[in-house]
Design brief:
Layout (H helix, E strand, L loop, with lengths): L1 E6 L3 H8 L4 E4 L4 E8 L5 E7 L3 E5 L1 H5 L6 E9 L2 E5 L2 E5 L4 E5 L4 E5 L3 E9 L7 H7 L9 H16 L5 H20 L11 H15 L8 H7 L4 H9 L5 H17 L9 H7 L5 H12 L3 H10 L16
Antiparallel strand pairs: 1-3, 2-5, 3-4, 4-11, 5-10, 6-9, 6-11, 7-8, 7-10
Length: 325
């Protein structure tokens, strides 16, 4: 077993060593601890304590270089809560639930509280699901009430404790058993017809595109989005359930992501924070700052200061050493 205690400044190094290369942000005074068990076949099981709010981001550039690191992460919170965003889905993760992420696509993970978690990291080819099924399972919460999830959660906890007493062959067998249970749990949340091209999907795609193209419109709310597409509010909620979120959560995430991009772009350095807030549909500055801090674990001005002015250089890509633009 490997054990590592670390500060917020060391979180990126720990993430790259034990999970995946990512950009990380934490609150002040953050401390963490991770213990890792190895089970062969590049499969590991980690028990982590994250000592406060944090945000980790795997960028598009990092994901594009994942051909030699085509890994999957399945995380189960035993205490605390957070959320995961990938493939235009945002999964809430209260204690007891599990969420899958894949390394070859951009994803973000935010924990708003102190958390304890178990994380299974393994190569994609070990999971006996089709590629489309794996992608569709990402960023979808596996509920703690699901029987398969209850079996998997209990097994992972016991496996971590017993691993030191297993032989190498037993470790490999136990790791494969964990993957088999995970496949069973993921089949409960994977849509039976992923990416179907029926009229409901077409309507959902139109609504998502409308959101992205009208972020600056302060009147764009769930009710207005439904009205403009001639559907009821309840039907709008049903449509967005197909991608594991709600219309309001999708709109808020798109606005915050657009604001984050503007704050990271030197071409917008002359704009005030209130101008950026208004540009993505937030008329009230305090509401914007509160939502941004809850999402990215720092204020908009703090993000801009660190992203644009720290050493007059952008943040490095953890895999290539190049600047992340």
């Amino acid at each position: 077993m490997q054990i590592r205690e670390f500060s917020g400044e060391e979180l990126e190094d720990v993430a790259g060593e034990f999970f995946l290369p990512m950009i990380a942000r934490t609150g002040p005074g953050f401390r963490g601890r991770v213990a890792v068990q190895e089970f062969g076949e590049a499969l590991t099981l980690s028990r982590s304590h994250w000592g406060g709010p944090m945000m980790t981001l795997r960028t598009d550039r990092m994901a594009a270089r994942a051909s030699t690191c085509n890994r999957l992460l399945f995380c189960v919170y035993s205490a605390g809560r957070g959320r995961v965003r990938q493939h235009d889905r945002c999964a809430e993760q209260p204690a007891g639930t599990g969420v899958l992420c894949e390394s070859r696509s951009r994803f973000e993970r935010v924990s708003s509280t102190e958390t304890w978690s178990l994380t299974l990291r393994f190569p994609r080819q070990l999971l006996p699901l089709r590629t489309a099924e794996i992608t569709e399972a990402c960023a979808r919460s596996v509920a703690t009430t699901a029987p398969a999830m209850q079996m998997l959660s209990a097994y992972l906890g016991r496996l971590f404790e017993a691993a030191d007493d297993l032989t190498d062959q037993q470790r490999m067998d136990a790791g494969r058993a964990a993957i088999a249970l995970l496949a069973m749990a993921l089949r409960d949340v994977t849509p039976s017809v992923p990416g179907g091209a029926g009229p409901e999907k077409v309507l959902l795609d139109m609504m998502r595109r409308h959101v992205r193209e009208h972020l600056a419109d302060p009147d764009l709310r769930v009710e207005e989005l439904a009205r403009r597409h001639h559907v009821s509010v309840s039907h709008a909620y049903t449509l967005f359930e197909r991608i594991g979120t709600t219309p309001g959560a999708y709109l808020r995430e798109e606005r915050l992501q657009a604001a984050q991009a503007m704050l990271s772009d030197r071409r917008h350095d002359w704009l005030r924070i209130s101008d950026i807030a208004a540009a993505v549909g937030f008329l009230d500055l305090r509401t914007f700052e509160r939502a941004f801090r809850r999402r990215y674990v720092m204020t908009p001005s703090g993000w801009r200061q660190e992203r644009l002015h720290a050493g007059s250089a952008p943040l490095p890509d953890r895999e290539t050493g190049e600047s992340v633009s």
